[in-house]
Structure formats: C-alpha cells, structure tokens
Design a protein that fits this description.
It is built from twelve helices and 17 strands. The chain is globular. The strands form four sheets. It has a five-stranded mixed barrel, surrounded by four helices. A four-stranded mixed beta sheet has the order 12-14-16-17, with helices on one face. It has a two-stranded antiparallel sheet with strand order 5-11. The chain has helices at about 5, 50-60, 75-80, 100-115, 135-150, 195-205, 220-230, 230-245, 250-255, 265-275, 295-305, 360-370, and strands at about 15-20, 65-70, 90-95, 120-125, 130, 155-160, 170-175, 185-190, 210-220, 280-285, 285-290, 310, 315-320, 325, 330-335, 340-345, 350-355. Helix 4 (about 100-115) crosses helix 7, helix 4 (about 100-115) crosses helix 10 (about 265-275) and helix 8 (about 230-245) packs antiparallel against helix 9 (about 250-255). Helix 3 links the parallel strand 2 (about 65-70) and strand 3 (about 90-95).
Length: about 375
Amino acid sequence: MSADLATTPVPGFHAVVPAGGAGTRLWPLSRAGHPKFLLDLTGTGRTLLQATVDRLTPLTGAGNVLVVTGARHAAAVGGQLPELLADGTERVLAEPSPRDSMAAIGLAAAVLEHRHGPDVVLGSFAADHVISGAEEFGRAVREGVAAARAGYVATIGIAATEPSTAFGYVHAGAPLGVPEAPSARHVVGFTEKPDAQTAAEYLATGEYRWNAGMFIVKAQVLLDHLATQLPALADGVRELARAWDTPERDVALARIWPGLTKIAIDHAIAEPVAAAGGVAVVPGEFGWDDIGDFASLGALLQAAGGTTLGDDAAVLRVDAADALVVTGGRTVSVVGVPGAVVVDTADAVLVTTREHAQAVKAAVDGWRARGREDLL
C-alpha cells in the first residue's frame, strides 16, 4: 500500500479532535485537571494529544486541525500544540463547561461551516486513542471522506480482536456502492456495550466491528441532521459559530452554551441517522487502543517490550514479571504479585491488579466522597 495514503493531504478535509474527559480509570496518573490526553502514556516523548495531531496533520495539510477542549485545559493544549496558534487563526476551541461530544463536535462543525462553507468535510477523532498503521489509517480516512462527500455520515469500524464488553459495536450491512470507498458498507445499527455472550455472537457473524467514535461527514450534513434531531442544539452551535471569530464570542457563549443539550454524538446523530439509512462504515484494519484502563495500558507497554512507564531502573520485580509499574522516580519493588498494578505519583499511590483495572474509578469516587477534591 502506498505511503501516499498516509502523507498526502485530502483536499477540503479538516480534522476535529475532541479533547475531554478525566480518564478516571487511569487515576492517579490521569486527573481532571491533567487528563490522559495530555500525558505521554506510550513512552515516545509525545503525549496522546500530540500523537493524534501528528497522525492527522499529513492528511489534512497544515492549518486544518481543530481541537475542542475545556477552558481549563486550553492553555495546556496550546502549549503542547503551538502550531495551532501559529498564524492568528484560532484552532483551539475552548468550551466553558462539558456538554458531551455532540456539543463539542457540533460547535467545531459550525465553526468550520462558517469559515469554509457548507461542503467542508470534517473528521472527528478522539485525542486519547493510540493508533498504529499510518497507511491503513490513511486509507480508511480517505474512504470515509468519499462516503461523506456522497452525503453519508461515515464511521470507521475497528476490527474486533476479542468479544469485548468495554466497547460499543457497529453492524455493517450491504455495500455502500460509492466507487471511491470500495470497502464501505451501510450501517444497520449501533449497539451499546453488550454482555460477553452477545459480543461473542456478534463476532461470529463477521458483520460487527468496534465503534471507536470516529465520524467523517460534511459540516452541513451533520448540522442539518442535528437540526432534525435536536433543533435547539443545532441553532445554538450555529449562532455560536457566527460569533466565534468576533468580539461577541464570550457574551454568546455565556448566553447559549449552558443551555445546550448534553448528549453524545452517538445518540444524537449516529443511531437515529443509521436507522434512516444515512450512515456508512469503513473497515479500519489498523491497530487501535483507547487505553481505557491500566490493563489496556499494560498490554500496550508489553507489546512494545516493557511493563514500566517511567524509569525502569527504579523498578524491581520478584516473581511478578508482568507487574505494571508507573513510577515518578522513587524505587518500587513488587514481590510475588503477578498481574499487579502499582502507580506511584507525587501525592497518591494506587495498588491494584490488571483483573480489577475497571474498578479503579471506585477509588476516585471514594476520595470524592471523602471531600478530597485535591486528589481528583
């Protein structure tokens, strides 16, 4: 497959990177004030956010990536991605408060529509996912853009490696019939995280893929669907877009943003539009991980040849070869606890196992119940 698929810009294509969430299952590494997308969790020297933009910029061309993030994170995002602030065009859109993914992506779509016209194609890609296989990723994005230009909301379906209950699923149907998107198919429907038996049944059919929340669509198509489903939300983001590059932005945000419907794009657009036949799925055969918990992080690091995030010389394992250790510099010894997870930060230590990785959120809830907001 040609490397051009990964490095040649797609004309008229812009990327939107929603950067939100606290990553509570990666506490105490990820905090509300410094969430996982701002962290280097792969040991590459680039944060998840930086790696996401690094991956997208060759496909969009310079100046065609927008990041939507919370106001409290905007300065950190700008610090990590100074190229987004380089020419005076604002490409870090700061939300005053979290309103879920539909408001964030809808705002970005409306700003792009206002700046570039209704036919601009945008792709939304989370800031905190790890992807390998740039050429295959580029191919999937290009097919998604072709499907979007044909009027569809396109999503990229990830090849499931196991019957996971941690992800939603997208059900692929008949071929789409768009020549520039030969592998694209109609979407029959989306399913929330299923139980293990249902997930296994899905995979046995060969018709289901993981839904990673990647959506590619014309700005006008997205906003017109939103106007049908949630007209007040569509009107709100379009009004904000008209004010965004003017001195009226802050006044408009204060008036409009708090009243916008808080809903995920999956529920607002993907599910109802799929039911009406308007969503396509492009198979993505690249490596993908959302690093949803420490078990996932451990597997990712192990695949790269290690199980330490930080200084491996500061870690001693005895009868615990697969113990995941995150160290800030202090020495850590793990003795006789296979599958252990030890996370040592300046003000908090977590000790658990990979088996219990999904339960780490309970620690966050527990400290919050004790009033320890300083730890969150």
